Each structure stands twice: as structure tokens, then as C-alpha cells.
Fold these 3 entries.
Entry 1:
Amino acid sequence: MKKIHQIYINGEFLTPHGTETFDLINPTTNQKIGEVVLGDEEDTKAAIAAAKEAFKTFSKTTKEERIAYLEKLHAAVSKRENDLVKVMVEEYGGTLQFCKMSAQNAITAFPTMIETLRNFNFEKTVGHSKVRLESLGVVGIITPWNASNGFICSKLATAIAAGCTAVIKPSEMSAQQTQLIMKCFHEAGLPKGVFNIVNGLGNVVGAEITRHKDIAKISFTGSTVTGKTIAKGAIDTMKRVTLELGGKSPNIILDDANLSEAIPLAVFGAYMNNGQACIAPTRLLVPENKLDEVNILAKAAAQNIKVGNPANEDTNVGPMVSQKQFERVQNYIKIGQEEGATLLVGGEGKPEGLEDGNFVKATIFTNVRNDMRIAQEEIFGPVLSIIPYKNEADAIAIANDTTYGLAAYISSSNKERAEKVAAQIDAGRICINKFTHDPQAPFGGFKQSGIGREFGVYGLEAYLEPKAILE
Ligand code: NDP
């Protein structure tokens, strides 16, 4: 049984002032594997004070010094790649396939930000003025459980590039992953107080970060509900916010697409990260006159999806992170049937032989109407909704008929046509004919999928405050 009782403040591993504990449960077996001692408001205040003190000197560092720190972080995190994968599979239930990719994203966050920083000018001429882009201050970094260290690394890399210091509050469900990354960051030997990590609950540690006057900005990834709470709280001290929130991303299959390629890819994509991905293409929009063909292809693709132990190389879908998340997904599968959608494959209950963990059957609903709850609400599990459309204009209208706007996907044999459709979709990131990633391209949402952008130049500018000097 592991007992995690360390937080990290001012360059030191400390026992938290808080005494409450949280059980760590392996989602594959539902066995308790450890517990974490949670930090409290006092711990959070101490972390903020350390980051505030460190900011005085860290904000004055040169580009070269920041690059050197990012290189050290990169080296320290790279060394532990296998451990990063292993602990993620065990603690979170992410598949080996996904966790390897996620660990890579965490590691490459540093060189990617170094590249951005090398080409970035902190001083520009605008009109007849000199504009200096200055470090914002202490940043509160609040992250969810579904790719914990990936988010922490990319947000911290950006803060450091901008000369900001940070107080990080990960999800308590990721405590073992946090412990590992804490050790890596410590090894990198950054000046004291530049980064501080406090395990703890959102409504305790997260709320203190949100209200504290010495936090200048919050970079948050998580649900839209929590994002709104943070944004409301942040306004009292006029904090800057970057909010990366939920999604219900459309995947538009145009009538000229190659269905035998596009449909299996669509199913696979919807189940990425066990379906617990904000960018997952969970609404599959298909021409109504091709619905029968799509149903056959989608059912076959889902039946080829292997749900099971996430540590196995060939597993495509592992367990839901928690019992609560399992129940939430089950409830949506029930709602879909009650709403009158056709259950094509999967359904309620656990797959045979996987009764111990939080496993959900790979599920597809077809004949879904876009006004159904399963088409409007983020389920965060392996549940795909197939929605028929009449023509291209109808597909675009359905795609945009959502409160979200994080990502969208388009399949077509005509690139020009796909780009014209992309121009009419309200989403922060649109992939054409494949699921791909560009770590330099801005990432973030339209509408209620968030505020602001991360990654590359757009991400870096969000940690800086422009100051115009008129001479
Ligand atoms: P939550 O919003 O519940 O939690 C995210 C983080 O916020 C956790 O660390 C949580 O702490 C903390 N938190 C909770 N309440 C507060 C509060 N009142 N003040 C400050 N912090 C708080 O999200 P989930 O952990 O459930 O993650 C899933 C969600 O994240 C999905 O909606 C998903 O779409 C979204 N997401 C968005 C991404 C994006 O880039 N747009 C990427 C990945 C996920 P605690 O754990 O203690 O509750």
C-alpha cells in the first residue's frame, strides 16, 4: 500500500499541513492501492508565497536561461519515460497505447516550447510605440485526471518560457503520477519556488488558488462546470484565465468520403483514451442515404475493439477512471435508449469477464437526433452517437448545434470541399481526413469549450502582459 504524503513547496518535499486522506483505487481491479494526504488552504498559501518570492528574480531571467531550465526539465522527465507510462496505466487505467503517446506529449512539451521561445520576441514595435511583453506573475495550474502529467508539463513549460512561477494543483486521483513528475522536476534543479505542487481537493486547494490575490493567472483544464466556477471566482481579483474545457466534437463524413476507411477510424477516434478525451469525435454525422452502410461498418469496427486490461499491448479501451465515472457513463447509455436512439452495439453492464474493474462495453447508438441528451452532453466514455444528415448544409448546422466548440473532424475525398466546410464550423481545431496533432498550433475552444489558447506562440502570449512604451 502506497502512502503519498508529500507536496512540494519552495524546492522542498514537505508533509502537508492538511490531514485529510483520499483513497487511490486501481480502476482495473477496484482494489485500493494507496492513499494520498491532501493539502489544504494553508499549504496552498505557502506555495503561493514561495512562487511570489521566486517571481521577483525568475521574471528577470533571460531567454537563454529559461531555455536552459526547460532543457533540464526535458532531460529529467525523459529519463523516466517508462515509469511515466507504467504509473499512468496502473493509476488511471489508460491503455498502454494511449499512455505511451501521452508520456511522449509530456516529454516533448519542453523542446516544443524551447522552439517557440527561441523564435519569440519579447519586445516589438507597434505603431510608434515599443511594446514589451512582460511575465504575468504567479500562475495557478489546475489539471484533470485524464492525461495529468501531459497537462502539467505543457502548462509549466509555457509558464517558465514566459518567466512566470507556478503553483500546480493536479487531480487527487492522479497522486502517484504527480509524485513521479514532482521528483523529475526536483531533479531538474530549478531555483526554489519556481514551481510548487499541492495535492488537494478542487474546492479547497483549487478554490484558494482561484481567490488568492497573489495569483495573476489560472491555466485550467477540466470540465465546463468547474471552468465557469473558476472564471467567476477569478474575476474578483481580475485574474487572467485560460480555460480548456469540455467538448462534443462532430465528425462529419461527407458523401464523397471513403466509408470503409473513414468509419473504422471514426469509431477508433471516439474511443480514444477510453472515451475520456475532451477532443473525442463523439458525434458521427453521416449522409442519411448511407446510414445502413455506415451502421454495418461501425458495428464491425466496434466489435473489433478490444476492451480489457489496459496493460496489454492490444487493448483499445481500458476501464473508466473511477466507479463514479463508470456509473455516469452507464446512466447515459440508459438515457440514450429512453430517448429512442437505436442501440447498435454495446449497451449497459460490464463486458463478460471484466466484472471487477470499471469497464464499459464499446457502445454505439445510431439514428440519434442532435437534440437528444446523448448528442448534446459530454459523456466521457466509449459511447458514440451516429447522427444522419440530409445534405451538406444540414451537416454543418448539426455540427454547430452544440454549446461546445473544441474540435471537429471532416472526411472527404475532396480536400478543397473539406476546407470550405471547415471554414463554416465553430471549433478551435479541425482535422481533415485524419486524427493528427500539431504541438505548435493553437489549442482551445470556441463557445463553452473554453477561453484562450494553449501551445506555441498563442499559448506563450497568454502568460504575458503587453506594456506599451510611448516615447
Ligand atoms: P473537473 O472540472 O471536475 O476537475 C478538473 C480539476 O479542477 C481537478 O483538479 C479538480 O479537482 C479541480 N476543481 C474542481 N472543482 C474546483 C473548484 N471549485 N475550484 C478550482 N478547481 C476545482 O474535471 P475532471 O477531472 O472530471 O476532468 C474531465 C473534464 O475535463 C471533462 O469535461 C473534459 O472534457 C475536460 N478536459 C478538457 C480538456 C481540454 O483541453 N479542453 C482536456 C481534457 C479534459 P478535484 O479533482 O479535487 O475535483
Entry 2:
Amino acid sequence: MRPIRLLTAALAAALLPAVPALAQEPVLNLYSARHYQTDEALYDNFTRATGIRINRIEAGDDQLLERLKSEGANSPADVLLIVDASRLYNAQQQGLFQPVRTVALEARIPASMRDPGGEWFGFSSRARVLVYNKARLKTADIPTYESLADPRLKGKVCVRSGSHPYNLSLTAAMIERQGEAKAEAWARGLVANLARAPKGGDSDQIKAVAAGECDVAVVNTYYYARILRSTKAEDRDIAAKTGVVWPDQGGAGTHVNISGAGVLRHAPHRDAAVRFLEYLASDDAQRYFADGNNEWPAVKSVVVKNPALEAMGGGDFKADPVAISALGRNTPAAQKLADRAGWR
Ligand code: FE
């Protein structure tokens, strides 16, 4: 066997000058929980500008986190792109990220939308709003998240599980605003008002409101924007029957969350990963990134004209200025609180 092996090695060495371009082609391995049509252009533009090819693994947020945990130090992943403060916090707590400090990222991404230690950065934002049945409620009935716990709404509220990251982050925001005891009273009031046991995702809650199964639901803006932009007859019907309320405009502001990314601790291509994050913060990438899922760009100077978000009144709403990192910190308390309140 040995001579053959040597021969093979010699052959390979002889061939070497012909292959290095291929062998060392710069690549970036991206684990992404996002998959929207405009993301294709987003990634192609990066490759065109940098020569770095992107290998994408797309899966659900929780699947990606599981995968990274099991791959450990052998993971080929360079960048993790996921959704929601509570998930970013979890990933950070598990030690999945490494700190990144660059002038470009710190100048462009607002401090409230990134980890102070540079482990993750928000690249787009979404708000958690109320969608209501116009035949059953008026906007004045539901001006705040607090209204969801008002006994007058008994049997009228639909919301997905309290353990889902979107609701954990909302609960984390309520804890940040008013402390744990009041936030728990709120969650208990909300649970007492449920029209049905939590089931399905945000889109299912919107459908239930239109169908009259409940009068008001808590949903992320992009789900409702999708319905407003849809040409399907059933979605036109849902849009006609429902309206949107931006909660707490007279108070702390509407709760906002992010899509975000960080460079992974064992990233084999760290430089490419940092360049990719900087690229995501560029004007063009911000437009693609935000619009792909009817979100807002994180970079404030980048303006996106999204007709659905504007029709919803999302042009200049008051957002809760709380730091996303603070929501992450409150996530474990929010989970325990949701369990105590029976928000399953
Ligand atoms: Fe979602």
C-alpha cells in the first residue's frame, strides 16, 4: 500500500499548482433562520462585491441552535442569523458567539440593537402589535398591552404560547417596565381573558380574529403586512375585517424585536464573517434584508418605503427604547413567570 500512497501524494503535489484557486476559494458558511426571496439577491451581491461564496444552511431558529450545540468546536459555521432577542440571548449564554468590534458596525447599528460586547447585532426590526376585529372592538378599547388583561376583554383574546420567544420577549419588556410582580399580574389577566388555549403561530391568531373566534390578537407586524400585501381573496377578506393598534403610544411605546446575527466562536472564516456582518449593515443590504420580510432596517439613515407597513401606521410609531440586550437578560424570568401564570 505504501508505495501507492506515496505515488498518490507525489501526484497530488505535482498537481497542486493547478488547484489552489479552487481549494482556497474564499467561502462563508452561514446558518440562517431566514429564507425570503429577496435574500438571494442579498447574498449574490455580497459574493459579487467580495468574491466570497456563501454556503447556506437554512433551518428553523431552534434547529440551528441545536445543530450548533451538537457540532461544538467542529462546527463549520461562521455566522448565525436568527430571530428574536430571547434566542440571541440563549445563543450567547451557550457561548456560541465570539465578540466582534468594528467601527463600521458600531457606527451603523444603534447601540440599543446590538450586544454591548459585540457578540450579536440586530439588522432589522419588527414590532409586536394588536390586530382586532373591527365589528367587535374599537381602537379605544385596546390602547395598551395592559388592556389585554382588562376583565372587559374576558374570552376575547387570542395569543400564541407564552413560551414562544416572541411572547417571552414581550413579557421581558413588561418586566423591564413595571417589575416582575406587575408583569405577572398582567400575564395572569391575559390568560384569564383567552378565547381559547394558545395554539398556532401569529398568522393563526389573525385568522381567528377575522373569523370571530376572538376579538383581538397579539402579532408581529410582518405577519399582518403579509396579509395586507396579499392578493388572495381570503387575505383580502381578513384585511377588510381587521385593524391594527400600536400599543402604548401614550406610554413606553410599542414593543420592538430584531433579526440579528453574530460571528460564531469556532468560525473557520472569521474575516469573511466580519465582512459579511458589515455588508449586512450597508445601505443596499439593509433594504433587501428589511423588505424581504416586511421589517424595518436597523440602520436609521436607510429609508424603506413599504406600502403595507405604512398602511398600518408604521411610518412613525413610538417604539419602546429599551435595549434588546435587557430583554434577553429578562428572558429566563419571563419564562418562569409565563409558567406560573399558566400561559402555556
Ligand atoms: Fe415570525
Entry 3:
Amino acid sequence: MPHILIVEDEAAIADTLIFALQGEGFTTTWLSLGQAALAHQRQTPADLIILDIGLPDITGFETCKQLRRFSEVPVMFLSARDGEIDRVVGLEIGADDYVVKPFSPREVAARVRAILKRVGPTAVPTVFQVDHERVQIGYRGQPLSLTRHEFRLLNCLLEQPERVFSREQLLDAVGVAADAGYERNIDSHIKSVRSKLRAVAPDAEPIQTHRGLGYSYSPGNS
Ligand code: CA
């Protein structure tokens, strides 16, 4: 289900949006501050953000500007004013759509659907989100708590789906000298990564074992 982050400081407005969006099958998160929304989006990226312009801490415009430094997530602005300037600024700042209060929640839900359809596959939530700068990997929206070795190992597998990597190649990716004793180490790293993945999705098996060959990442089992 596409996940929509609603950033709006008026509870009554947020409530009508949540009701309309959930009625259309979306899942929602509601926050009332711009900074909180930025932090949330870094941790658990939503598929689309509905962003009020008049927020108590930083404006929706500023929030969007900062958001664009690390995310291409579609943004729909909510505005209390129907000003042409707002419209131009909103779209220049990297928003995808714009609605003026008071609005029909059903219309907003329909527009959200249209935007997600338009942006297409890039907006389809990826199962894994790799953040190289923060050395972090998210899985189904949950940040995984990985050691440095586990990060490199999983990242290596994710970069080439379906490719079977030998233990030696994986050791290389992890940055450990490939002497005999270390090869089993890969198995224990894989075991540890798998248990962290299972904690998020017990029924999925994204890392496949190939007997006598090594391991691969299988998106179909994610
Ligand atoms: Ca407001």
C-alpha cells in the first residue's frame, strides 16, 4: 500500500485527509511540524507527502526545499491562500501539485492517486533503501541495524539482483582478506543479516543460498 505522509498542524484538516486517504486504501502518517517530517522521511520514506504551507516551525516551502536535497518524493502542497505567487513558488520549489483550503478530501485522494500513477515505477516503494552516506539500509520502510560488514555485504548483494556471489567475492566486498578461515565468516554474517530481515518480514527470503556456490539477492522473494 502506498504510504502518505501528511504534514498539517490543524488536526481537523489532518483527520479529514486521513479518513479520505485510508478509505482509498492508502496508509498514512500524520505529523504537524516540518522538521519532524524531514526526519521522518529520512528514516521511513513515504511515497508521497501532503505538505501544509503554514506550519508552526518552518514553512512548507522551506520543508520542501530541504526535502529536495535528499528526496524526490512527490509533494502536494496545501495552502490557505489561493495566490498565484504561491502556486508559482510551490511548483518551482519542486512540488507536484497544489490544493487550496478548503478542499474536498476526496479530490485530494484522487489527485494523490493520479500523481502516484504519473510518477510511475520510480514512486513504487522499493523494498530496500540504501543510504550510502549514512551507511544505512532500510527494508520495507524499517531501518536495519547493521554492522559495517553486514552493510557492505547486503549492499553488494542488492547492487546486482539475482547474481550469485561466491563467499570469496563477498569477503572481497566486505573488505576482509579472503583467507580460508574467513570464508565461514560470510555464513555467519549472512545468518545475522537474515535474522534482521526476518524481524521485519518473517515470510520473505530475499537472500538465497546456492549450495556450493554462494549467495544471491532475489527481489522476487523480498
Ligand atoms: Ca497550517
